[in-house]
Batch of 3 targets.
Target 1
Amino acid sequence: MKQELSFQTLCLSSLSKVFADQSPADAPFHRASALLGETFAFQIAYTANQMLKQVRVHVESSLSAPVTVRSIGLSPSEMCCYPDHDDNVLRTTPGLYPDPLYPLEDGSVTVMAGQWRSVWVDIELIGSINPGQYPVKLRFESKEGEHLGEETFELEIIAAELPKPRLIHTEWFHTDCLATYYKVDIFSEEHWQLIEKYIDTAVKHGMNMILTPLFTPPLDTEIGGERPTVQLVDVEVTGEGDRYAFGFTKLKRWVELCLSKGAAYIEFSHLFTQWGAKHAPKIIANVNGEACRIFGWDTDASGDAYRNFLKQFLPELKLVIKQLGIEERSYFHISDEPTTDHLESYLHASNIIHEHLSEYPIIDALSEIAFYEKGIVKRPIPGNNHIEDFLQAQVPDLWTYYCCVQYKHVSNRFFNMPSARNRVLGLQLYKFDIRGFLHWGYNFWYSQCSIKKLNPFLVTDALHAFPSGDSFLVYPGEDGPVESIRLEVLYEAQQDLRALELLEQFIGKERTIALLEEGLEQPLTFSEYPHSKEWMLSIREKINRAIAEHAVK
C-alpha cells in the first residue's frame, strides 16, 4: 500500500538553526517589524515522509521590495568545538551543520524523506516603501502543481530609516585564496572579476574596510613558509642594490574598486610578520629582469636593509594615498597578535613605522594591555574576552575582535553556536561605544599556517585547526561567493547596532541603554548577556517600538 504523503512546514526566525536529523523545538515565528534600509530575514522549515524532487517555492506579497528565497545547505564539521567549551552551544558532535545559502534551482527544493530542512527568506527594504503591515506568503507545490503547504509571515514596516553605519568593520580578505581555489592567475582579469564579486558581497554585509595587500600579508603563514604572492606594489631594485623604484598601478586599481563598491576604509596589510614583528613580509622585486624575493623570513626586521626599503617606500605610498584622496580612510598595521614576549621587537618595528606614518591610525590585534600602557600602541584591538581592562583604561576609539581563542562566554560564530550568540555582538558594540570590529577570516580556505589548499565545502575547520565557522564566512561558488547564515546573522547584529544609534538620536544614550537592559538581572557585558533567541528577538522589537513612537512625533 502506498504511504500517504505527509508534508509539514514551520515558520521560524533567522536565529533558529534547523538540523536535518532533529525536529525544530523552537516556537513558530510569524510576525515582526523592521526599519527602512535594512534586510529582514526569517526561515521556513519543512519536512515530509517521502522524498520529493522539484518542490516549487512561490512567494506572494504586495510588498514593493525584493524578496529572495535561498535553500540552507549542510556543511560537514569534524571539529566543531574545543573539548573545554562552555554550555552556550547547540551540539558538540561532528556532523552536518546548517550554514551555506544556495540559490534555488528553478525556484525549487528537494525534500529528503524524514529530514528537516529550511529555506532562508530575505526581504530587502530599499527604495520607496510605504510603512504598514505586509503579509509575505510562501507556498510549496509539487512539480505536478499539488499544494503541499504554506506559511505566512506578517512584517510591519516602520516609518524610520536605519542611519549609515558608524562602526568600522573588517573581515580579512584573502586575495590568494581566491586565485588558488578558482585556479586563476593572480591579478589576471579573471582574478580581478572574482575580487570584485567578493568585495561587493563583503560591503553589502557591512564590511566597510578591506584588507589591502601592499605585499603578501604575513598572516597565518608557517615560519619559513610562503603564501602565494599577492603583491599590489611593483618593486624594482635599481642602482647598487639598495635603491628601489615602485609601481602603484595595481594598488590604484584595487583602491578604486573598493571605493566603487562602497567601501569606506582601506586597511593596508601588515608591514612586519605575525607573532612578534621580527621579520619582513615576503616582498618580490624585479632584479635585473627577474622576479626575486628580496625580503622575507630571513630578513631581520631591525636591520638596515629593511629600514632602508621602508624609508624609500612609505613616502611614495603616502603620495599615492594623497592622489587617491584617501588620507582620512587609510589604516595601517605593524604586526598581528604580539604578546609581552615581543615587546622589544614590536617597539622597534613601531618606531620605524611611526617615523613615516605617525599621522595615520595604526591598529593591531593584541590582548595584553601593557602595549597600550607603555604607549607602544595607541589603537589596540583586544579580543572580546580581554576587553574589560581596555574599557577600564578608557582607551579612546576602542576596537575589538574575536577568533578561535574567544570561545568561552563571549560572542562568536562557530557552526555549533546558537545564532543569538552571533547576533548579540551588535548590542555589546553599541553599549560600550566600540569604534571598530575585526576578524581574520572572511574567506580563508587554507589549512592552518597556509600549508595546504582546502575545499571549504568539505573541510570547514582549517584541517582540524580551528572550530568550524572560524576561518570563513563565505564559500566559493561557481562564479562568486556563496553566503552563509553566519554572515547574514552577523549583518543583523550590525543592523541592531544602527537601530540603537537611531534610537539614541531620539532619547539619548543613557535611556537607550536603560531600555536595552530593562528586566535583566545584571548589566549587559561582553561575557554576561541573555542567551536565548527569544530575548534577542524581543529586544529588537522593543527598540523598533521605541523608534516608531518617537519617529512620528
Note: Residues 138 and 151 are 5 Å apart (CA to CA).
Target 2
Amino acid sequence: MSIRAKIILIVVPLLVTALLISSTISSYSARSGMTRIAMSSMAFKAQELNKYMESQWNLLVTNELSENKEYVDVARSAMEAYAASVVSTPTELIFAFPVSTDSGEMNPELSTGELELTDADRAALQALALEDKRGWLEFSLNGNPRVGHAFRFSPFDWMVIVSEDSSAFYKEVTELTTRNYMVLGGSIVISIIILLIVTGVITRPLTRVASTMKEIINDSDLSRRVPVEYNDETGDLANTFNIMAEGLNKASESVKSQALKAVMAQKNEHKIRNIFQKYVPKDVIDSIFDNPESMLKGDNQIVAILFSDIRSFTTISEGYMPDELVNVLNEYFEIMVDIIMEHGGIIDKYIGDAIMAFFGAPVKYKNDALNAVAVALKMQAALRVFNRNLEEKGKPKFITGIGINYGMVTVGNIGSQKKMDYTIIGDMVNLGSRLEGLTKPYKQDVIFSESVYRKVKDTYPCRLVDKVQVKGKTVGANIYTAYEEVNVRQEQALKIHHAAMSRYYALDFTGARQYFEALLKIVPDDYLAGMYLERCTRYITDPPPSDWNGVEILTSK
C-alpha cells in the first residue's frame, strides 16, 4: 500500500468521524428542539380542548341541565366543533372513546374525521384506557403509527386523544436530517479531492525514489540517481539514496560472493538434514548444528527408558514367508514408532525385533515418565487391533512385553568421528532391559520400576507386581504394572490385591492367602493372584527365614 493511500486512510476516517459527530450532534439537537416544540403544541391543543370541554360541562351543571339529554347532546356537538376547529393538518385527528362500556364495544363518541377501527385498534385503545394512560403516547391505527396527547374527561367517562400521523409529525425533522447528511456527503467528497491533490504533491518525490529503486532492481544499474526536488526531508531522502546507491555499487560484487556462499551452505545443511533425519531424531540434528563442538560430549540426564520386545519371535517367524515377515514387522514398527514419537520419545535403536526408546533428551519435559507409561499402554492397545488383523488372515499374533525405568543416564553422541550414535548408557538402561524381561515370567504386558510408579500413581491405576532383585543388582526393588482404565470389578480386585500384599509382606501368609483366594473369585484367570496363592501356601507349610524381606532374587536376565 502506498504512502499516499495510507495518508488518505488515516485522514479520511478522522475527517469523516469529525464531520459525522458534528452533523449527528446538530441533527440530534435540531430534532430534539423541533420535537419538543411539536409535542408542546400538541399538548397545548389538548389542554385548550380539555378546558373548553370542562367549561361546557360546567355550564350544564350550573344551569342544572346535566341530566337533560338534549342539552348534553348540544354540549357534545359544541365540543366536537371546537375540536375540529383546532385541527390544523389533514392528517391530524382528535377523537374520544368511552373508558368502559356495557356492550364491550370500543367505538369513538367524538371524532374530527373518519375513523374506522379494527379489532386490534379497539383492543389497543381499551388497554390504554384501562392503564389510564395520559399525556404523550405512541400508538397505531389501521397499522399506521401515530403520536398524540391523551387526557381523561371524567364527566363523559371519555379518553380523549389529540393525535397526528407519525410521518407528518416528524416530517420537518426528517427533512432536516436528510439535508444534513447531504451536506456531510458533499463535504466528505470535496475533502477527499483536496486530500488527493495535496498527498500527490507530498509523495511525488517518494514515488520517484521508489521508481528508481525498482529500475535498479530490474537491471542492477547502480549508476541511476534520483533528482532532488525540495529542500526538505524528501530532498534529504533523495540525496541519501544517491549516496547509498554509490556505496552499494562499490560493494555489490562482495555481496554477491557472500550471498552465493550462504545459499550453498544452506543447501548443504538442508541436504544433510534430509539424509540423517531418517537415522537420527530431528531434535538431535538441531542440537548438533547449534553446537557442533559438543558432538562427542556426553551429559548426565534423568530420562525414562522404554524397552519393548516381541516374545517368542523365532516361533512366530516360522508362520511367515521371509518377505511376509519383513512386511508385517515393518508395519508393526511403524505403528509403535508413531505412538512413541507422538509423545516426545526418541527411538534409540532396533535390537532385532525389540525397540529401545527414551523420553527426556535432548528435550526435557516434567512428565517424561508419565509419557513413557502412556506410550506403553497405547502400544498394547494398538497391538490388540494389530493382532485382530493378523488373526483374520490366519497368521500368528504378536505378544510383546514392555519394561520402563526412570533415572540418571549418560546421553549423547557416543562413538568415533567415523561412526557414532545418539544413545543412552548406564545402569538405569540395563535395569530397564531387565524389567522388560520380567514381563514374561510374571505374564504382564507392562512392568516398571519404583521411580516410574512415583510419577504415574496419581494418573493411572497401578498394581504392585513383586519385590525383586534382578541379576546384577545387590538390593531388591518394587516392580509395578498399570492399566489405562479399570471397571468396577477390576477396581475391586486391585483393592483386594493391595490388602493381600500388605499382609504378605507382614508375614501374615494365612490372611494374605484368604485375600488372594477372594481376588481369584472375582478374576479367576489372574496370574499374579495364583502365583502369590502358591507362595502363601508354601510359606505357611515352610516359613521363610527370620530375616526374610519379601525380595525374590532372580538369577536370569
Note: The two ends are 72 Å apart (CA to CA).
Target 3
Amino acid sequence: MDAAQVSNCLSNQAGDVARYLLPNGKTQGREWCVGSLNGEAGESLKVCISGGKAGVWSDFASGDAGDLLELWCRVRGISCSEAFREAKAYLGVADDKKRPQKSTAFQKPTKPKGLTAPKSVLGYLNGRKLTESSIKAYKIGESPGGWIVFPFIRDGETVYIKYLNLKRDDKGKKRIKAESNCEPILFGMQTIPTTQNSLAITEGELDAMSLHEYGISAVSVPNGAGSGNKNAWIDHCWEWLESFTEIYLCMDNDDPGQEAAIDIANRLGLHRCKLVTLPKKDANECLTAGVGGEEIFKCFEDARTFDPEELRRAGSYTDQVLERFYPTEGRRPGIDLPWRKTHDRLRLYDGEVSIWTGINGHGKSLLLGQVMLGAAKQGHSCCIASMEMKPEKTLARMVQQAVRTDKPTQDAIRKTLNQLNENVWIFDVVGTAKHDRLLKVFDYAYRRYGIRQFVVDSLAKVGLDEDDYNGQKAFVDALGDFAKSTNSHVHLVAHARKGMDEFSAPGKMSVKGTGALTDMVDNLLCVYRNKAKERDMAILENGGNIKGETLEDVRSKFDAFLICDKHREDGADAEGGYGLYFDRKPQSFVEKQSGELC
C-alpha cells in the first residue's frame, strides 16, 4: 500500500484520526478544530471530518494545508516516510514485502581518479543556466578528459555514477557512459526534503537540476526514456517511493518520453501520478529559453492525471447534455419514421440498437425498407444486409415505395436508383453471413462512407443456431458496442415465435431466441397485420354477416399496426400502437386510406 492509498484510508476515518493526532480539539459541524499544529485548543486549524473533503486540513493562521498523512508528519515532527510507516501501523496495514530484485550482486562505483569540483565544466553548466546552488545540491563533479560526473546518492552513499562529456562524438551525438554493474537508482534523491510528500521525476539529470533552479525538488531516471529494464530503478527505489502521495512525471515532450511516463505511472500507481506538459521539450530547454517560474508552476498545477479513459467527470458531458435539451439543428440526433403521427413521439436515436419483430409474412422487412428510404430522404446513409432476399428485390420494393406505383417506368427506376445511390448501400450476401464478417463490413462502411443506419435482416441469418443463446447475446452485445462507438443505429430483424394463431400481436415475450435480447436493445418494434380485418373483409365480401359491422365499417379499420413495445429514450411517450393502412400497388404503409403517405 503506497502513501496515496494510506492517505485515502485515513480520510475514511478522518474523525478518529483527527482526534488521535489532535486530542485537544472539538467538533464544529463537519470540522475538528484546534489552535495550531501544536494541538492547543482553538479554532485556527480545521480538519474536515466528513463529506467529500474529509481528510483535508487547513491552518488559517499560517496558510498551511494538506491531507491527513501530511498532518501526521507535521504534528509528529517526523519525516514523510516515518509518518507513512506510523500511519500504516495505526490502520493495521502490514508492511509490504520488499519488491523482488534481481539476484545480481551490484558493485560499488569507484571514485574517478582526479575527481574535482566542476571548475572547468562550469562554463557548460552555467551555459545551461545551472547555478552553484544546484551544482552543490546534486554534488556534481568533473573528471579528466572533460567529463561531467553525476553521482547517484542514497542515504549518503554513492551507488551509481554517470558521466557526460563536454564534447560530442564525430556524428554529433552526446558521449555518455556509466559505471558498470552498479545499482540503478534515481539521481538527486538527497535533494528531496524528508517532509515533502510530492515528487517530480524527470528524464535527465540536467532537467532535474533545472527544476531545482525553479524551486521544485526533483530527481531523474538513470537511463533515459524507455520501458522494461530501463525502469529497473523502480524496484531499487520502491520503499523510498512508497511514501510520496503525488508523483509528477516531467518527461521529455516526445514519443519516447511520453511512452516512458505511461510505463512508469503504471508501475508506481496511476492514482498518484500526474503528467506534466512543459512549453518546451524538457525542463532544461525551458530554463535556457528563459521560461519564467510562474509558467512552470502553472504546468505543474495543470498536470493531468492518468485517469482511465472510461472515467470522466460529469462536467465533461455538458455539451452533450445541452444538445439533448437544445439540439443545434432543432431536432435531436437520429431519424424520423416516415409517418407524421410518429413525429415528436417515436424517434430512433443515434447510438442505439432496435429489434424489429413480427409474425412471418406480416411485413416487417417491407416496412423497415420504407423506414430506410425515409432515412435516405433525410440525408442519412444506410447499409442493408438483407440475407433473406436478393438485393434487386429489396431495391425494387424501395423503388416502388419511392415513386408510389407498382410498375415504375425505366426512366423512373434509373432516376430513383441514381438518387438512392448516394445514401443506400447493400451488404451483398444471400443466405447465412458470418456475424464477425458482417460487423467488419459495417465498421468499414462507417469509417469509409460515414454510414450510420444499418439493417441486419435477420438474426436467423448470422450463423448462430436457434438455441445458441450465449452466441445470440454476444452478437447483440457486439451490435450495441458498435452502435455506441460509431454513434450509429442498428436495426435488427428478429422473428417472432409461433403462437396459437395470427390474431394477437406479438410483443417482448414473443421474440424468438434468448430472452436477454429484448433486455439488451434500446427499442422493440413490432409489425402486425390486422388479420382480424382481413378475415372480416373476406366474410362480408362473400355475402356473410358480422353482427354490428358493415363492409364500410370493417374497411375503415387499419390494415396494420406498428407497435412500439419498448423505447429506452422516451419510454411511455413513445410506446404504444400506431395504426397504418397498406397501399398494395407501391407496397407502402400509409397513414390515410386514400393512399397518401401522411
Note: The chain has a mean pLDDT of 91.
